Amino acid sequence: MADKKQNDNKNEKKRKESILDLSKYLEKQIRVKFAGGRECSGILKGFDPLLNLVLDNTTEYLRDPDEPYKFSEDTRNLGLVVCRGTSVVLICPQDGMEAISNPFLPQD
Questions:
Q1: Angstrom distance (rounded) from CA 67 to CA 62
Q2: Backbone angles phi, psi at 25, to 5 degrees
Q3: Which sequence ranges are marked TM in the entry (predicted)?
Q4: Which of 23, 31, 51, 58 would bridge with 42, disulfide CB 3.0–4.6 Å?
Q5: Strands (DSSP E) along the chain, which ranges?
Q6: For residue 71, what pLDDT band results from cuts at 50, 70 and 90?
């Protein structure tokens, strides 16, 4: 019976492994989008399987007060930040990111 409990504990630990490997982005600039629409960028210092992130030299991109879906040119320096993984929606490298046209829209 004790062996079965140990096997169950090992299986539970395996299930908690992250499907996303962020180790290649450690010490590199990344951009993060959060639930609720906030965005920031910073140097990834650490992470865990729940996608809690530690960012250094973090900059938040502020939204235009007149148009809440557009970002203004204003930013706010936050410094060292711990980002809760449950609110992270998107993580991408700051370098090498480019906007592309939507391939699903009909061409004119």
A1: 11
A2: -100, 0
A3: none
A4: 58
A5: 29-34, 39-47, 53-63, 71-83, 88-93
A6: confident
